[in-house]
Amino acid sequence: MAHIHSEERLQRSLAEITRLLSRHRLLATLAHRQEGPRRDLLESLQHRQNLVELHKQLRVMHAADIGYVLEALPHDDRRTVWAQLGPEQAGQVLVEVADAVRESVIDATAQDDLVKVLLTLDADDLAYVAESLPPDVRAAVSRALAISERTAFDEAARYADDRVGRHMNREWVTVRETETIQHALAELRLRRDLPQQTDRLFVIDSRYVLRGALPLPALLLTDPATPVTAVMVQEPVVFGPHDDAADAAQAFERYDLISAPVVDDRGKLVGRLTVDAVMDFVREQANLQALKRAGLTADEDLFAGPWNSARNRWPWLGLNLLTAFAASRVIGHFEGEIQQLASLAALMPIVASIGGNTGNQTMALVIRGLALDRLKTASAKRMLNKELMISLLNGLVWGAVVGLFAVVLYANFALGVVMAGAVVMNLVVAALAGVAVPLALHATGRDPAHGSSVLLTFITDAMGFFLFLGLASAFLL
Fold first, then answer.
1. What is the pTM of this model?
2. Fewest CB within 10 angstroms: 339, 347, 421, 451, which?
3. pLDDT score, position 122
């Protein structure tokens, strides 16, 4: 039997759902054109055949795949698919779908129906989607939960999204430090199942203070009469609920963790962080970083209304417009020189463009270093010196190339020298800006990725124009 890869299966599912939705719209259009019994017959055919097929298709799909499908559909089709999901499946889809799409389906769902969907989730998943919920819905869900679940939900929702406490779960397996391996195995056999990503048991004392971690291989391969304290990891990697989730994600990558305990200030076990929660956080942060680098203030639904999308893009577009005006004034200052030597107008974008490319390369390295907490104040100067040297070397090589190009194109040796000099100097400026801009944003508590490219483009464009036209004014005219 031929195996179908997950991506191929997902695309087939999307194509099939798109086909069913197209047929659904066609039948709906035909039904509205008919009157009397024929209209009733067509509507019955539509619901019995098409929507039932759609429901069957969705029922066997994973929640993450349905989330992917919802993100790829316009609003009307998205609501049709959402309406075919049962409460439990809809709840899991809410957890998997992107934030912007989650908010759109929440807005399209009646409050009572939405509460039914949310009550199928555990406290950890509820906390994960809490920020997308209207306050009245969140309050209604909290009131409907059992006391223990309500406490866990309210506590988790109090943590910010970038804290470990927001992403930890409250399902784990513990064993007392006074027990033996045999006792631990006996307790495991009494459980109906194990929490997902269980790769270790947490060893605690009588006060629920964490003493160590017992890996499953040690549990299975050690003599049953051995005390758990003899084979446990005495100092496992632990986190606090107020720790930065980004730091925790780096620790998971560094130590190849599957799960890790979360303890409070007194060392008591309060939660467990798992690799699936960390991966979700990393994916969201990566998406947000990509959007911020493009000047978007928040995640955006592909099929959101024009007004909301426009507002999401205004802040940095406005700043970009101001910087463009400033760069244009640099060119305006040299209008006379450009009129005397028309080749300047054709060549000056090259200087600005190569500077922007160099600056973006440097800036990407700095932002990654800051995100991974590898770039400190002491090492920033060393990195700046390295980037300046690289820019100088690249400037000499590529400045010579573009200078030769200018000589060949315009038969003007002096113009080629000016062109080469401007490229060298602008690449040095680009390296300075590529390091300084994200470091300055980071020092002021701002996300270094947010708008760095806009500021960098302004600096490299304005300085590229100024350097090239200034040198041309001094040596050519």
1. 0.72
2. 339
3. 87
